[in-house]
Amino acid sequence: MSDRVKGISFLDYVIKILIILLLSGLLYLLFLFISEKNSKSKEISLKDETQKVEPKVKKENFLPQNVTKTEKIEQNLKKQTQPTKQSQKLYTQEEMQEIIEMMIDQINELEEESKSDLGNDTKELDRTLEEYSVDSTQDEALELKKDLTNDINNTIKDTPINKSVTQKEVDHYNKVVINDNNDNYNSDKIDNISKQIGSIVDDITQNRSSSNYTKIIKKEVVVREDAMRIVVVRKGDTLSKISLRAYGTVDGYKKIFEANRELIKNPNHIYVGQRLRVPTL
Amino acid sequence: MKKLLFILIFCFTSSIFADETLVKISKDLPYFYTYHQGKKIKVARIQDPQNRLNDDYTKTSRECPPFCIHPMRVNDKVETIGELEFIKYMQDKDALIVDARLKSWYELETIPSAINIPYNIFENSDQKKIDSLLKLLGKSNGDFKNAKTLVLFCNGIWCDQSPRLIRSLLKYGYPPSKLKYYRNGFQGWKIFGLTTVVLKENKR
Predict the structure, then answer these.
(1) Is B80 helix (H, G, I), strand (E, B) or coil?
(2) What's the gap in Å between the CA of A22 and the closest CA on chain B?
(3) For A172, which of B17, B51, B56 is closest by C-beta distance?
(4) pLDDT above 90 (res A22)
(5) Do B116 and A201 touch (CB under 8 A)?
(6) 137-156 in B: which are within 8 Å (CB) of A?
């Protein structure tokens, strides 16, 4: 009896151990499963975070499209260099430059997009053009308009969005254009003072005749307005072509030459991108 | 994951690189911010060391008189200041930057944060208007104690517009200690390639 009992108990013992092993195996599998789930949910939550981050970055105007491109660059880099962990973190100067160039390209694209939004500016340009191109035909006026848009785009580059990354394209004007229809208008004390003074000034200048000095100063303003008119030289331009664009006749090239003596040593040699004064005829 | 982190770090560092200014205003001041007609404006210098002026602020000669070379001081008691002092006053709440040129000049192009008081405002107006102007500048009960410090400029060394305004302000009792004369004026500002503002709507 006792032997039998012992035998049964032995069998039972073995079975118990087997069951425990099975259970522990199952537990282990469960544990693995749960831990995987956790890691996945972590990734998901991280993805959510990045989605939250992206719109913020969109305002800064340079990240979202770059992400994909920089990723591509990274992949290229991996192919070139062995995919050790260190190579991921280190870039050589050339690679950095490549990336920065790509970013600048994209910023330029964005700028072009923003140009299309500037309908108001072009309207105002048209107005100014009407004053400038009294003698010239419509086609010439259109070409002049291109030049003027170049000028104004240069001034527009001052907007804080574009300022931070445009390292290579230096702004040569450094002028900020202020619209009265500014949306982000915060009138402060100084602004109020200047407005009230402005109204007093308007009253006076309308009513009274001016002194000799004032008359001369007013003439000098006209000189200044003239000097502010600048044409950017394009590919294939000559002084006579610019004169044709600006005045409607070829004869004005002498005047342009004289107004830019220190810039043009030889009237047959002007450079693309050169900024020339164009005084009124 | 690591990729994303890396990209974020990269963008951050590259933005720092991009912000580095080559041509600073002074050793410790690369640029600063100010307001003009409610718009926030970054005042910095043109970042191209090869850049040259191309407009009439490169002119060497104008008829004298009236465009003569001006003495260092308008008046013994009125301080003459340079660019860095001028910039300090731009950030001073008790000071007003005053463009003393005619309105047409002011609208063409001016220094950020400047208000316009044309020099001929005293020559051409009656007592009522002068009183209201001085009140706006901080005169109360015949007392200039709380009056603003006025920092005046015009086109530069050859320009008589701000000296004229200073003289007439002194005539009406403005304390000379509260008047500052920026002699280099707008031409000086332009020569250093500093940011200017254009009132576009009035541009003709």
Answers:
(1) strand
(2) 36
(3) B51
(4) no
(5) yes
(6) 137
Distance CA B153, CA A187 (A): 24
Least confident of A42-46, A112-116, A134-138: A134-138
**Exposure on the CB side of residue B132, measured as CA atoms within 13 A:** 14
Q: Which domains does chain A have, with CATH numbers?
A: 212-281 (3.10.350.10)
What is the nearest CA distance from A191 to chain B, expressed in angstroms? 6
User: Which residue do the tokens 């720092």 mark?
Assistant: B16
**Average pLDDT value for residue range A205-225:** 77
- Is the separation of the CB atoms in B21 and A244 below 8 Å? no
Encode pLDDT of B11-63 as tens digits: 555 655 555 789 999 999 999 999 998 889 999 999 989 888 877 788 889 99
Give the rounded percent of residues in chain A with a pLDDT score beyond 90.
Answer: 0
Give how far A251 is from chain B: nearest CA, Å. 22
Where b means 16+ CB within 10 Å and e means fewer, A29-59 reads: eeeeeeeeeeeeeeeeeeeeeeeeeeeebee
Res. B193: pLDDT tops 80 = yes
Short-list A237, A267, A250, A235, CA closest to A136: A250
Q: Which domains does chain B have, with CATH numbers?
A: 32-202 (3.40.250.10)
Angle at A80 between CA A78 and CA A83, to 5 degrees: 35
